[in-house]
Specification:
heterodimer, A: about 110 residues, mainly beta, seven-stranded mixed sheet, 13 strands, globular, B: about 120 residues
Chain lengths: ~110, ~120
């Protein structure tokens, strides 16, 4: 099984400042045949189901603000919120789908306002 | 509109059986894998398993193999998650989800809260 880890567990950022979340997979999630990283990011607000933000490691889902960006390749990935807004307070999860249809999620990172 | 609509909250006693549902609409139900995800109170997302309604091919996370059964009825575009004997530790929110444009989950159900208590 591919194990996903995230860091930090939580972070507090001032409004308008940058938030950076890291995700690491226990093995590469880069498919050499299509050069795609099978890595997604989700946002979950209290009382709501998760919402897909980023897929293929760096492709923003339709309607997701451009302050959200994903980067990385192979085993190391980053979700960046370039200018934190109050509505971005949430828990963020990474997910590998390299072993599709099997998949695993990271443990989550809680983002709060400082 | 593409959506997954889950059945309502359940309160059960330990040892009871339960089957919750997830009805898909607005897309070709038989052509996409539907997954189930557990979220225990205050905890993270855990992938439980997944089914391809077209041929009922089903895969389970090792953590959930033998603990739950995933099924689907393609005639009514509905996937199911069932337990034969619930435990208190099954208390959680359960989500179904599907990936229509990639293998990530771009559509989620609203969740079904299952509470198991004596």
């Amino acid at each position: 099984d591919i194990v996903m880890t995230q860091s930090p567990d939580s972070l507090a950022v001032s409004l308008g400042e940058r938030a950076t979340i890291n995700c690491k997979s226990s093995q590469s999630v880069l498919y050499s045949s299509n050069n795609k990283n099978y890595l997604a990011w989700y946002q979950q607000k209290p009382g709501q189901p998760p919402k897909l933000l980023i897929y293929w490691a760096s492709t923003r889902e339709s309607g997701v603000p451009d302050r959200f960006s994903g980067s990385g390749s192979g085993t190391d990935f980053t979700l960046t919120i370039s200018s934190l807004q109050a509505e971005d307070v949430a828990v963020y999860y990474c997910q590998q789908y390299y072993s599709t249809p099997l998949t695993t999620f990271g443990p989550g990172t809680k983002v709060d306002i400082k | 509109e593409v959506q997954l609509v889950q059945s309502g909250a359940e309160v059960k006693k330990p040892g009871e059986s339960l089957k919750i549902s997830c009805k898909g609409s607005g897309y070709s139900f038989t052509s996409y894998w539907i997954g189930w995800v557990r979220q225990m109170p205050g905890k993270g997302l855990e992938w439980m398993g997944i089914i391809y309604p077209g041929d009922s091919d089903t895969r389970y996370s090792p953590s959930f193999q033998g603990q739950v059964t995933i099924s689907a009825d393609k005639s009514i575009s509905t996937a199911y998650l069932q337990w034969s004997s619930l435990k208190a530790s099954d208390t959680a929110m359960y989500y179904c989800a599907v990936g229509l444009r990639t293998d990530a989950f771009d559509i989620w159900g609203q969740g079904t809260m299952v509470t198991v208590s004596s």
